Each structure stands twice: as C-alpha cells, then as structure tokens.
Amino acid sequence: MTMSDHTPQDWNPRDPAVLADQLHAYDELRERCPVAYSDAMHWSLFCHADVVAVLDDPDTFINASLHRAIPNAMNGAEHTKYREILAPYFSASEMASIEPKCREIATNVMEAIKMPGTTDAVADIAEPIAFRTMCAFLGWPQTTWERVRNWSHGNQAATFHHDHEAARAIAVEYEAIVTEAIEDHRRQDIRDDVTGRLMMTEVNGHRWSNEDIIAVLRNWIAGHGTVAAAIGIVIAHLAENQNLQHRLREQPQLIPAAINEIPRMDGPLVANTRVTTREATINGRTIPAGERISLMWIAANRDPRAFNAPDEIHLDREQQANLLYGGGIHYCLGAPLAQLELRVTVETLLAHTAEISLASNETLERETFPGNGFVTLPVRIR
After folding, report:
1. Burial of 118 per CB tally in 10 Å (0-12, 13-18, 19+)
2. For residue 52, what are the contacts with CB-CB under 8 A and spacing of at least 6?
3. Which residue, 22, 128, 294, 363, could crosslink 271 as a Cys pair with Cβ 3.0–4.6 Å?
4. Which residues span the domain enclosing 36?
C-alpha cells in the first residue's frame, strides 16, 4: 500500500469551480497548498521553485508515460542517447528550411477567411496552421491534417474523462495514422523528408521499425494540439487587448517576445508527470517512492516569487524562468518548431488584417485539463 492509498484530498481537480477557471484556481492553490494531493492527479506542485527543483533532479523524479515514447518516456543515459539522435531535426537550419512552407500555409489559411467578418480563430486559424505545418514538417500529405486534429481532440477527451476504452481506440487510431504514412513513404521510396530520414535511422546496428517511429512521433504529434492551443491563446489576448495588438503591428520585432510572454501568463498545457524513485521532501511534504507528481506549468509560470506582476503581459520581461517548454533534461525537443509556428502565425495574421477583436462579450469557453486553450474563439476580422 502506498501513501496515496490513504492520503486525504487537499483539492479536487474535477471540481466544476476549478475547471471553470483553471488559472485562478491554481493561483489560489499555489498560495494555500503548494504541494497538494488529490485522488485524480496524486501530488501536484504549484510553485515555480518546487517545479524547478524536480526538473533539476531527474534521478529522483523520472519521466513516465502510459505508452512507449522516444525519448520522452526514457531516463538517464538512454534518454540522452536518443535525444542526441533526434535533436538535429529541430536545428536552426531545419527550422529555416520549413519556415517558407509554414508561411505559405499560414497565408493560405488567412486568405481563405472572408473579411470583414467573424471567424472561429481556433477551428479556422490555429488548428489548420498547426496541424498542416506538422504534416509538412513530417512530409505527410496536407489532407492528413484533419484526421490528426480529430485524433488530438479525442486524445484530450479520453485523458480528461479517464475513459480507458476511448484511450485504447485513440491509441489504435494514432498508430494507424503513423503506420499509413510510413508505408506510403516506403511504397514511394521517399527518404529525404523527416519521416523518410527516421525510417533510415539505425541504432545499435538495427534500423528503426514502424513501432520505433510510432514511439518517436507520439509526443511530436500530441504536442501540436498544445501548439494550436497556444496560437488560440495568443490570438485571444491580441483580440482582447487592442493596445497590445497595435503595438505588435507597429513593432513586429516584438512578436518573438509576445509568443513567449503571452503563453507564460496564460499557458496552453496544464501539467506533465514525473514519478519518484525514492522518498523526497518537497516544500515540507514527504512523498514516498513510486508516487506520481504533476508539475503544474500554468501555476508555476504565474508564481509571483518568480515573476513580477505575473498576471500581466510585459514584452520586456526576461524569459529565463519561463517554463512554457518545460526545463531540465526533458526540455521540449520541439520547442523551436512550436516557436516558429507561433511567430509565423502572428506575423501573417497581423499582415493580413487591419483589426482583430472579440466577436462576443460573453465569457469564452475554455478547454479543461489536460489543456487550457479555447474550445472556440469567435473573433471579428477586418
């Protein structure tokens, strides 16, 4: 029996009041109970310093995954080895190579929107750009993006509802999507794009199998749901804050700062998980070995002990403490691609419009755990 079998709950992550306003609910918990236990999430860390302490001790707090994932579910020397194999796919030269295609996709998406008019910035802008760019990056047909988007929605729903049957079906669909792409490359003998290069990769004298590539792409593809959510969040704040929008139109050189600062303050991903390998004490609470710990990114990134005026957007803020892409040895491998997509989307959006504003005064519906984006985002564009 572990401690979790009889630990009283400090909070309920599924409380409707929490789900209705995750940002401020987590802010309150960070001050009231910074290391909190719940049956649904086990141990959750809300303070920036505590999250960083876990990130800085990968021997005590190891990464964990329900599915095989390379390198995300690996630890130690094995993780380092595979990360070094995959890091070149996100190099500066690779990003420079994919940027024209990303810009073409963003331009096509914006030109398809009727202006002046009202559009859903999530379904009509954020998701098409994120998932179509992902397909282009991997060398997949552009027609695949909607299938991947539907998979992403299903994956998030299954995670929230703890629906094991749906999760199994989602896992089968994911494997089918990747396997079809691999087999299509094999039939056409395509070797010069990302998927083709992964197919040619050899480790320890063995060429990667379909299953290996499925494990590699798992987090790359799932992460694009987070990228789409981040794009939606940035657009929402630009639509709501006309002064900020005007400033970026007048000073586009500030866009790189904006795409880091806005999702710091209003993050797209709630948490990631670690597991303790031995007993650990965090902020005065002792956690046994074998316990699951959730690193609450969106609470840590709003911690006033790490950020002055954390719930405000400051484009001149130093970003070293920003945990938008995690930290430590498991820092997000795909961060350069995510930043590219965010930057190009905002640049293209502002270049193709004169004004963006919220289309409704009603409270916008937010996603809930594991995400924090918008379900829909009606905006007026002219």
Report:
1. middle
2. 300, 323, 327
3. 294
4. 3-381
Angle between helices 210-240 and 335-351 (to 10 degrees): 40
pTM of the model: 0.95
CA dist 170 and 213 (Å) reads: 17
Task: Give me the number of domains the chain comprises.
Answer: 1
| Pair type for strands 61-63 and 271-276 | antiparallel
Pairing of the two strands 42-45 and 292-296? parallel
Note down pLDDT in tens along the chain; length 382 residues.
Answer: 455 556 899 999 999 999 999 999 999 999 999 999 999 999 999 999 999 999 999 999 999 777 788 888 888 899 999 999 999 999 999 999 999 999 999 999 999 999 999 999 999 999 999 999 999 999 999 999 999 999 999 998 888 888 889 989 999 999 999 999 999 999 999 999 999 999 999 999 999 999 999 999 999 998 999 999 999 999 999 999 999 999 999 999 999 999 999 999 999 999 999 999 999 999 999 999 999 999 999 999 999 999 999 999 999 999 999 999 999 999 999 999 999 999 999 999 999 999 999 997 777 889 999 899 999 999 999 9
| SS3 at position 44 | strand
Contacts 24+ apart (CB under 8 A), 51-54: 51/295, 51/296, 51/297, 51/300, 51/323, 51/327, 52/300, 52/323, 52/327, 53/282, 54/274, 54/282, 54/293, 54/295
Residue 291 belongs to domain with CATH number:
1.10.630.10
